[in-house]
């Protein structure tokens, strides 16, 4: 695994991607997807259950790796053609971020840690990725 990424999406959108074996970022933007490579690790963080909803979740909801180097667009509805990447999702259980706030370099010591989660795709350390994976019951081994 070369790099590790944290993706932000509602749990509902993560479930759709998980079921279809894909991910999209930033409402279907292509540019962020180009930063990733086959084999990179991804972990999905869901601030809410539904997009724009008041149904706060604040949990890591899926984890896996980028399956290949393909980036493709799909016709979802008239006027909406998002870009996607294929993902191999691993067996895991959603995990509340609250239990990891003091363990992750990404959030440790940051009272306003949520500000770091405004962006759709951010590279994270391999150490943080492993801690999240273990908390989700999807332990990874060192490559």
Secondary-structure topology with pairs:
Blueprint: E1 4-8, H1 11-20, E2 22-23, H2 31-34, E3 41-48, E4 56-73, E5 83-89, E6 95-96, E7 121-124, H3 126-135
Parallel strand pairs: 1-3
Antiparallel strand pairs: 1-7, 2-5, 3-4, 4-5, 4-6
Task: Outline the structure in words.
The chain is α+β, with helices and mostly antiparallel strands. It has a single domain, classed as Roll (ph1033 like fold). 17% of the residues lie in helices and 32% in strands. The chain has 3 helices and 7 strands. It has helices at residues 11-20, 31-34, 126-135, and strands spanning 4-8, 22-23, 41-48, 56-73, 83-89, 95-96, 121-124. Strands 1, 2, 3, 4, 5, 6 and 7 form a 7-stranded mixed sheet that branches. A hairpin with a 7-residue loop joins strand 3 (41-48) and strand 4 (56-73). The longest helix is centred in the N-terminal third of the chain and has 10 residues, at 11-20. The radius of gyration is 14 Å and the shape is globular. The termini are close together. The model has no long low-confidence stretch (mean pLDDT 92).
